[in-house]
Amino acid sequence: MYLSESLEKKYTKETLPARDAQRLAEFIAFGPIVFQVSRLMVKWGILEMLRDEELTIEEVARKADISVYAAKCLLEASLTIGTVLINKATDRFTISKTGWFLVNDPATRVNMDFNHDVNYLGMFDLEDALKEGRPAGLKRLGNWPTVYEGLSQLPEEAQKSWFAFDHFYSDSSFEEALKIVFADKPKTLMDVGGNTGRWALRCVDYDPNVNVTIVDLPQQLAMMRQQTAGKSGADRIEGFGTNLLDETNALPNHRHWDVIWMSQFLDCFSETQIVSILKRAAAVMDNDTRLYIMETLWDRQRFEPAAFCLTQISLYFTDIANGNSKMYHSDDLIRLIGQAGLSVDEIYDHLGQGHSIVKVKKMK
């Protein structure tokens, strides 16, 4: 199994003393409470207060407009969680390094909102999802076969957090990705799973000669047209509505494709479905077409916390999204590419928030 250098150090041998390991076990056992306490410490601005000044329990209660009892419960729990510290001489609390990251790290804030608004209630059904291969927790949000059919109808906060999560991770990589994809000046680009058209807009802005076709579900294309309407270059963006879960649905073949682009797309499908989609991509490719697959591959992360996040996000796919996909290991993705009659030409790592781009061509 391939592992980046930092992951190999962390995951191939025991690193915790027994007492620390025991504490982590208890931390896991109380995980739901730890999460909700910490979320409220952020939502009610308490950690932000403690970042700026040391405060007593009574002062926190007054500033946050909560009871002294509520402030005491939150602060004492946060002290043992590790997000605040106490000055023994003055009984005043202040923020810790961990608390600072909860307040200031954009990725942590996006992840927290995503887990609360999209995942939290549904995770009660994770056991059923794993056993049955279906998104058992999705019913907490709505009645759809997968989350993708329901994106336009999600509850307001869930929809807001879902798109914030999705855009945060993809957008951070776009600048570097554009340089890679447009190195050979493509004129035609198929964006498979183009969602709301953010990548397509970046493409037509980056190169005035490129035409983009977004392939996605019809309801997603409706959202895309709303988001791109009136934007510069939108006249060079067209939509092709289809459901790629139906293996009889081919990718568009009405023109030669210089580039086929799949960003944060294949992680939405099972291994069998990925091979089917890649075979359909191969069917509309020629020897000059290049397929670029951008994914957050958990094994190729520069920093270990990113691998932790990605392997946890896999369970969102299991329980909420579709029941059978995940954040893949690069060994698995490379194997599936080969099964589809394609080969890896090059891999670019460490783009944005931990993305990799796998450049793929047809086997000769």
From TrEMBL:
GO terms for molecular function: methyltransferase activity. Gene3D superfamilies: 1.20.58.1390, Vaccinia Virus protein VP39 (3.40.50.150), Winged helix-like DNA-binding domain superfamily/Winged helix DNA-binding domain (1.10.10.10). Keywords: Methyltransferase, S-adenosyl-L-methionine, Transferase. Residues 176-341 form the O-methyltransferase C-terminal domain. GO terms for biological process: methylation. The keyword Metal-binding does not apply. It comes from the Bacteria. Residues 22-93 form the BVU-1015-like N-terminal dimerisation-like domain. The keyword Nuclease does not apply. This is Methyltransferase domain-containing protein.
